[in-house]
Each structure stands twice: as C-alpha cells, then as structure tokens.
Amino acid sequence: MLKRVIIFAVIQEILILFLMLSFYWNISLLYYINVSFIVAAIVFVVGLILYVMQSGFFDLIHTGMRKMTRRMRREEESEFADVPLSELMNVGYVSLLLSSLAVLATSFIALAIYYS
Prior knowledge:
The chain crosses the membrane at residues 5-25, 31-61, 93-115. By secondary structure, this protein is mostly helical.
C-alpha cells in the first residue's frame, strides 16, 4: 500500500509541475502552494466520494434507479441486475486519501517556508 501511496503522490507532484508551467509559465514557491493545494483537495474529495460509495450509502438509491429505468424501458431482469453499487465500485480509496494528505502536507510546509 505504501508503494501505491508514493506512486499517487509522485503523479500528483508531476501534475502540479505541469499545471504550474501551463498556467503561470514559471516555477515559484507561491505558485506551488496554490496549485498543490487545489490538486490535493480535488484528489482528497475524489477519495472521499469513493469511500462513501464503497460504504454502501448509495446502494438503495442505485437499486431504486435501476429498477425504475428497467421498468420504463420494459427490460427483463438479468442476473447482474441486483448487484449493489458498493460491490461495483471496488477501487482502493485509502491510497488516494493518504497521497493527497501527503501532498497537502507538502503544501503546508511550503506555506510555512514562504511566510518565515
């Protein structure tokens, strides 16, 4: 798991560098702080959404919507029709959350360096 966290953190840092060069055409500590906070926040929110989906919170809503659309289209039930959303979303969210927290920590460290 630590290997995945490091890989996701490195991917985020490469994305931060690419976005800094794309939008600002320059590399500076202030630009790094701004871009890294936004990237880490987006990845953290995606990880939280995956966590909520895998916890089974949306299973009833997903099942109800599938039944309703099946009735509207007049389709027959298949053997995979009653698979809950939490079983369909089998993506690891812990490594996303931890890598975004690591990038967020580097953002706060850079912020402390910038203001010292």
